[in-house]
Amino acid sequence: MTARQSQVAGIDVGGTFTDLVIFDSTSRSVRLAKTPTTLDNQAGGVLNALVAAEVEIAALDLIVHGTTTTTNAVLERQLCRTGLITTAGFRDILELGRRTRPQAYGMKGEFRPIIPRDLRTEVPERMDAAGAVVTPLDEAALAAAIRALIAKDCEALVIHFLHSYANPAHELRAAEIARVTDRLAKVQGLKRPLVMMERAGGYSDDCCMSFGNENFGKMVDIAGGKNFASDLIPGTFGTVNPEAVVAANPEVVIITGGNWGAYVPGGAWVGLGPGSDLAEARRKLANLAKRPAFGQTKAVKEGRVHAIWHQFYNSPYQFVAIQEIATWLHPELFKDLDAEATLKTLHERFLPLPYQPGYWVTVERK
Question: What per-residue confidence (pLDDT) applies to 71?
Fold first, then answer.
């Protein structure tokens, strides 16, 4: 408690009663209240306790909240069907834990894990005890794990990786990716739009560099699209001819862009990155969309042409690109998803520099 926190409320919501204690550091007085817990909406019991203690919420400087409701639900096994995703090799740790066994040794006794083994899955990733990355998070494996758990009718998802207390980056990434993959997995008969993903469009006069099954090609797949070049490029990236693009008639075009002025001064590339000129980036993107390979495609005719920062391919915030691409591919499904807000929040939390927009742009629809 700081010197400015005069009145502090401690609240414990139980299965039967809600208990309240209020401490006033100025008068050194304590007030108590006990009211029945309102099971349909536990906030009601809290408000009733505050009324019983004759305290206005606005007068409180701090509220400390605790509850045994969740503990009771766990003990009584009254939980929804829950799936677990954890670090590869640690799927069975819930059943190997010694301290939760009625008898630590011998073959007697019974232990029933909260989440059964068939609803526990694992993905490649690993932090060491100091928080350093040993194995990067496999985002494609994560998406597949989420789809598998939803197919098993899981209603809730637990993401719990080894040593996340030291570095929560993988858990945060997994949770943000799940905001996309979880929703996609629940759509029956999902239609995946065909996406032409152009690599560094305008960097040279060549058309068209693209991505195979890795890199941005994988991001398109995770975001709910079908990458046009996946069947044409065996590696991470390569080249497809303009005629193939015309014949495929992609529904969405996405071009990667960056600040390449030092390499190709005055080039036709789309300038993207923190603090970029989005009006100029949009102008260049519109010009690239007029090239013969794209001009008559469904994507251009319907105004579904976008550009995204090229460096997302090796950024720890790659999941933000997945979120933004998902809003382009399935705008109605993800109309409440704000990738800009996600990136800004993480930027302010983990990076020392002020946040600057400029990571993506879309052509203006006519």
Answer: 81
CA–CA gap between residue 254 and residue 208 (Å, rounded): 12
Residue that has been written with the tokens 């630590």 in this structure: 104
For the segment 16-44, the average pLDDT, to the nearest whole number, is 90
* Ordered strands of the 17-24 beta sheet: 29-36, 17-24, 7-13, 62-67
CB 93 within 8 A of CB 131: no
DSSP assignments along 27-74, one per residue = TTEEEEEEEE--TT-HHHHHHHHHHHTT--GGG-SEEEEEESHHHHHH
CB-hemisphere CA count at 13 Å for 271?
18
Distance from the first to the final alpha carbon of the chain = 58
β partners of residue 328: none
User: What pLDDT does residue 113 have?
Assistant: 84
Cα–Cα nearest to 271, from 308, 303, 220: 308
The pTM assigned to this predicted structure is: 0.75
